[in-house]
Amino acid sequence: MSGIPSSTWYEDFFTELPNEFWRRAVPPEVTVDEIDFVERHLGLAPRSLVLDVPCGSGRHSLELARRGHRVTGVDLSAEAIGHARRAAAGLDVDFVRADMRAIPREGGFDAAVCLGNSFGYLELDGLREFAAALGAAVRPGGGLVVDFASAAESILPGYRAEPRTMRTGDITVHATGEYDVAGSRMFSRYRFTRGDEELDVTAIHHVYTVAQIVELLSDHGFADVGLFGGTDGEPFAVGGGRLLLVARRTS
């Protein structure tokens, strides 16, 4: 296996070039569809107080705010937070630069969303800390949606790490992957190019079973878990490429 990246890879990964690629790569209708799912399954009342963590460049936070919700978006990337703040003119949204575990823990949020497959960034101890922070942030009766594409039930059936090339505008990305069996994690190596710019970076996605995720959230006050395979509401099944988990904070 080639060089192993730092476990805190996410501290330096999300600079302008990768962020700009993903800002371009996701069509607006995908964001609308995802927030439709959140509102539908959490039954958000008008003007709900919603935590979006990590929020990246703010696409979900901004859509929630456009619908009249009061939103706090938290992300560690200075570039992403700067972009989100510039895009938020006139909307009721507060963007905070911080680690995903350093979220407000006063229990005042009506809902929290963790979208975009960032739930697997952390090793198990870090993920426990994040689950505890979510449990302390959301009020009793409030809701949670987690978007996770690295569940073991998604990744392991028929796993193959095929090289990929992706383009959006003048940005090209070459991606390769490795599965670290001993660490139950995937290494995704990217080469971003734009004109004369070139950036080589590696992401780690830790692979957890659905049962592990449910147990972690249950340990920190979340119950009534629903497991969906997409925004259409189909049940999650082995081999499904995406897990959308919905839960309710107990009293």
TrEMBL record:
Residues 50-142 form the Methyltransferase domain. Keywords: Methyltransferase, S-adenosyl-L-methionine, Transferase. GO terms for biological process: methylation. One of its GO terms (molecular function) is methyltransferase activity. Transmembrane segments: none annotated. It holds the Pfam family Methyltransf_25. It comes from the Bacteria. This is Methyltransferase family protein. It comes from Saccharothrix saharensis.
